[in-house]
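Reproducibility note. Readers wishing to regenerate the assembly model reported in the main text can use the exact inputs given here. Chain order matters: entities are listed in the order in which they were concatenated for prediction.
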Amino acid sequence: MDEMTTLKNFRPDAPAADRARLAPGRQRLLDAAAERRQRRRFWPRADWKLAAVGAAAGVAVAAVLVAQVVQVAPTTDTHQVEAEHTTSPEPTDGQWLYEKILTRQSTLNFRDDLNPVPEKGAPAYVELTQETWTQYGSGKSRRMLPSGALDSVIGEANTESPKKLRQEVEKLPSEPQQLLRSLREVSRLGGDYQRIQYVFSNTDTIPSEVRLSLFRALKTIPGVVVRPQLVEDAMGRPALAVHPSDDNPFTRETHRREELLLDPETYEYRGERTMMLVGGMIDSKVTTEETLIVVSAVQRFAAAVNEPGVRP
Amino acid sequence: MTGPPDVGHDDHEHDHDDSSAIAQSLRRPEVFAVLYNRYAADVHRYVMRRLGDAAADDLTADIFLAAFRARSRYDLTRTNARPWFYGIAANLINKQRRTEERALRALARTGHDSVTESWVDHADDRVTAQAAHRLLAGALASLSGGDRHVLLLVAWADLSYQEVAEALGIPVGTVRSRLNRARRKVRSALGDDPTHVQDFAPEAGHG
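Running the prediction on these inputs yields the following structure tokens for the assembly.
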């Protein structure tokens, strides 16, 4: 018998832990996850950081609906860009882009496994507002802390500036496959779908023809679903819901679907929402009796300002 | 990485693409529990085999919590996260190195293995270890921590050399040299010819 065989025969009867024994450790992990989720409320998503200057002056606050999926009356699915949108004047490099994001997060309890349960006695959702300022030329970012103080630079280093992103997006070709190829040079994050989602959520005021090209390209990506019926966005307006097909490992495992919401006429970014889908099973348990909106958020952009911390 | 599933991505879809779950967990922390479901039982058994029943529950939970907190630093090009968890396990087991070595030396000396006895229901069921295991325990206790990790990750966790290298953050060449050294010591302790070390299967196709 060689030494590796002897070693393999040493303590070979160490028993495998059953589910009950592993459960407390799993709960500790989920507790930490829940705590992290709480903390993240005050941290803007990095990919929402690069806000372009908004067409609308003043602060537009978005409301978010947390409810069952609402199927708005069927509309035509022409997806034509009708409204005229012009690109707003370009800020100077030193100016700061003010961004305000309002998010409503269902007070579902994720601590019991991955299966959400509404919190007893809690309001239907918690609301959080995030305000950030991003310098147009440099991409430096500051955020407002809950205390009212201005935080130091946030986000990952070396993210491209809003100026650079806008310049790159404006140059995108209109032919869908060429656009997707060019976009891979702009961002290497994720796949084609994630890249288009990134552009929609980060460049608020791109020319309408570029927005149309982006939407056309989005529809050519294999597996992308544009729902035939409009849904309601966070502010109660009809919106197009776009999402990757539910037949993917992430959705199969977690029964969550992340939707990108767009204006049905102009394809302007209307936010995102996360759905917990009905009918899923995790650990042999039904995840939810009805499809729930877990997180829903809308960002709106406002004009550039000269100093971080200043609201338009 | 933004957005959920990797639609339109060039890579093939993979049911056990751990890096995808880790990337998702950056935005949805609770998704990390998927990895616990996949690997906790294996890691738990490995910890139990090294340190005994009493340490296994807490240490396994600690390993996954440490991984969860470090997930933003995970190399997303590695689709299989199993070695990563064993690497974190090695770090945390290191902190109990003296306990582990004390138990091994006691086994070598007395023939009673407190680790095996930790999962035996009754003290009456105690068995005296085989002579070979007493010699083996003495040899394991004398190994450096790094050599012991390599040897046991290959023998008990069934990691390939490449996976051990990933787990411990060392070059594959170092894995080979540590494994050779550890095997020679064990072989010598067992009374076999220490110069005669046969190739071990995991290197094939991986090394």
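We highlight two features of this model. Chain B touches chain A through 62 residues (CB under 8 Å). The domain at 15-95 of chain B is CATH 1.10.1740.10 (Rna Polymerase Sigma Factor; Chain: A).
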